[in-house]
Prior knowledge:
12 helices, riboflavin biosynthesis, 13 strands, Riboflavin biosynthesis protein RibD, alpha/beta, Eubact_RibD
Amino acid sequence: MERRLLDAALARALDLAEHGPLAGGNPRVGCVILDTAGGPLAEGWHRGAGTAHAEAAALAAVPAASRHRLTGAVAVVTLEPCRHTGHTPPCAAALDEAGVAAVIYAVADPHPVAAGGAAWLAAHGVTTLDAARAGLDPALVDRAHELLHPWTTAVRRGRPWLIGKTATSLDGRVAAADGTSRWITGPDARAHAHVVRAGVDAIVVGTGTVLADDPALTARGPDGRPAPHQPVRVVIGHRDVPDTARVRSGPGEWLHLRTHDLGAVLAELDRRGLRRVLLEGGPALLSAALRRGLVDELHAYVAPVLLGAGPGAVGDLGITTIADAARWRTRRTEQLGPDLLLVATAARPTTPGDPTTNRRATAPADPTTSRRATARARTATSPHPTTQGAA
Length: 391
């Protein structure tokens, strides 16, 4: 099958994957199925925990009159099909039963329970190739790794992807000298912060923030109403949370972990299947997380305001010389009314799993030339399709 058709299918699968929710603990996955002529047959994406996976959604979208076209088809998926029975059956088995002859996936599944779909498919005669080995556009492969990087990272290391948030003046203050901080940033920046809240599984603050500011920690829309998804509100620290605290009464779940050990907190959230966590505590909590290297992504909201005095966004990190400065990689910037948002990730050495690594295969393989693909394609073009294909 022509590479341009496979590239187009992967590009479309990535577009579909981006429709999936950021929160919920599951990866964002898209799937496009091409018939033996390279024409689009069906597509689907994962809409969140408990719903059909992308491959199952695509298979279900094939009309009954076109089911026979699945025989010999090629499935292009952003993530390796699962080999695990959870809320839904394994996608690897569903693709095989449907008669799909080849599967191309952009990212290998690192999950110790769900992984293994590619090997299972290969053992059952289905050609399986990662997109790089299949010779697909490296930019698309990198885009897939970038899209899934927070989730795959969280799964591999057994710790949620942690986002640290600051909202500061131009001179880096989070409050004025008298402690007042509402509001440094404007309404557009605050509205964006609620969008971020709605896209995480949990928000973490310390008891000091709860006692000083009494935040609700809910995700709210422009109209002030609660968003459909509410992250778990997590308060850490040994002090009691007052019975009247707003964090207790909002929609969704709240949790009090009586510890200052951020590593233990993140381990508990991982045990609960929470993959994306937002740290909204004050400078002390953020500084502790930065010192331990726990922050993966920074969201810095900066307002064109000068305070001249007051607490800074980050405390002492133990850095004494500019050569030891913690360097971050800017991912994007966005203007929000008068304010600016800078999103950055920790600058780490490139590794084989890093989304900036070029994954072009030295000898691209054609996923449609296996004996099974040929046989299934021959069956698909027969005027008398099998009973399975016509069902």
